[in-house]
# Entry
Amino acid sequence: MATPIRVDSAGGEYMENVVILEWAVGLGSSVTAGETLVTVETAKAATDIDAPVDGYLTAIFAEPGAEVPLSAVLGLIGVTAGDTAFDGELDEASASDEERSETIHPQPERVAPDPSTSEDRIVASPAARRQAARLGLDLRRLGASSPSGRIKLRDLPAQGTLVESRPVAALPVDDNGPLSVYRSGRESGVPILLIHGFGADAVSWSPIERELARQAPVIRLDLPNHGQSPHRRVGRFANLARDITKAFDDLCVEDVHLVGHSLGGASALALADVRPRRVASLTLIAPGGLGPRIDGEFIEGLARASCPDSLGPWLRHMVCDPKMIGDDFVRAAMASRMDAGLRAAQLQMARDLFPDATQGFDLRAALERLECPTRLIWGRSDAILPWQHALAAPGRVGLHLFEATGHAPQLERTDAVLAILRAQIALSGVRA
Amino acid sequence: MAIMRYAEALNAALREEMGRDPRVFMFGEDIGRYGGVFKVSRGLMDEFGEGRIRDTPISEQALTAMAVSAAMTGTRPILEIMYADFVPLCMDALVNQASVFGYLWEGQIEIPFVLRTQGGGGVGTGAQHAKSLDVFLAHIPGIKVVAPVTPADAKGMLKAAIRDPQPVIFLEHKLLYNTRGEVANEEDVLVPLGKARVAISGTDISIFASSKMVVEAEAAAKLLAKDGIGAEVIDLRTLRPLDLSAIKASIAKTHHAVVVNEGWNFCGYVSELSATIMDHCFDDLDAPVSRVAMPDMPIPYSEPLEAAVIPNASRIAEAARRTLA
# Structure
């Protein structure tokens, strides 16, 4: 049985390790008790380790330069030249230098993923996380407005906002002020007047408006209870038509190319009916008023939506390919609907114009009466207003039906819709 | 109520407490005949005599040990250290004596003394006479550290400190002595140690500061108000023990925090504040805490250079805007 060579005796104060300087005796040599075997360096001095017994140096576990703990076994003194039998713990001194250095500087087995490079990691402030948890919102579906890229409280609907909107806030006193009007594009030429649909606003025309503005003056307006326009109880569609007509008269333009989408299409048609000589052309995109059917749940859901999580599904329902409505689009749309008063006013308007999920007004006769160049654009996958309503149009009206397109052809088929509008303008007005 | 300067408010507190309790006495360099370099003890030697207002040689180390010993033996000493820059000379008596004797002797003794000193820059006093070493002192368990900004708090807190059974470090600022404010005349109006004060109420961001930095934070709040940002300024008043409930209440409201201290940034008092906020208010935070402190460098003698490094209103406002971005 061999005797271990230990460092303990070389210990001093405040030390945990020593460094092996040199072995005074070669492996296999015979040694005498008290003979210096190895010199180690402590924090304070070099210290000799002496042989505890007579015998042979049969094993060296720590080579010069190695740093070993005080408890380590540096080597063995055997009874014979071949005796390496030892049943104690060898501790780290028995490990190779490479292994030992790992012991001294342990490496973590698994490296945690770097949060800044991990796509799964959501960067959100603690307060935003807590608010999202309270509201049951998925942070993945929200965008960050901060330049830091961190989702902050302001990117979430406030708790108070939700409470305020359910049930819907009481309607304030009617505001009969003028509708909001936006002008852009060229100075001269016949202006193009764009009227948006229910739940949208003038901003929703942006890709179309930008292109049209290169060739003509463009005028957009916000329907009552939409965008920046005043809030008031519209009641019947005839009142809405009167509002639009008044706004048109206030524009002080001679004539216009008229373009309307959905409820805005119905409004444009009603306007063309009462101001026929001033409408150079009429383009109706999935317009209302040509039949009774409408997706009432969509209208109600859109009007009520008070946070991105409730708005997003309805916006995606509106188009054929839901992937085109990204989180940013939803967030931007929600940002324009944060006013609980606006949502309440729209909800009332929806119930007035579309009672019992029915289009409560019929403009087919007006379409019959029109004389100006008129085109209808519709998506054959429109889930809100069925494209078959277009079949009510007289033969004089041009029909453009798009496959795999929902209720927003101007978004889903922007280039094609622009081409139709350009052709319409070129054909119908020499001054455009 | 009376309008008083900060130095006058301190003088009133000293006079009242010395009149009230014969165990109270004060010593330090040039505090007696000269009345103190900032005239805080003006007239007290005439009133209370050389036995209770004592001029001493320059030896901060001996003076502090003397304060500890005198307090242990039943008096209530007040020591004035002329410049906070020399607090390191006092450290042994604070760290190895004042703060631990009560513990070592199982509470059989109390060490009721007050160490008054002043620090801070802004008047070109250079790298050895302009520092704020608050954090050196606030680091020590068992010692209270206060740093009031208003004359009213200066008086009320100095009186509370003199009556406190524990060692209290009373930090003043050389640019505050001449500031004026309403101060209670009554002898028994104490301002409790360990309670913060809402200097300006706001809902968008909390600015935590003490001493002269409260003045800067208030000016920053005015700058921010022009941008429609409602900053809440919390005057901590006591650096240790911290008024945690005031900190939590403010951040629960604003979700944003800027912490300000005139001392160095690295391992600074601001770092402690920031970590404390992270520990206790993490889920309320909507942005990381911003620190505004002295850059890690000697304080320049040149006044323009000094002005460029000392935390001020515009740096605080900038930090607030960054935090809210």
Chain B has two domains: 2-183, 197-324.
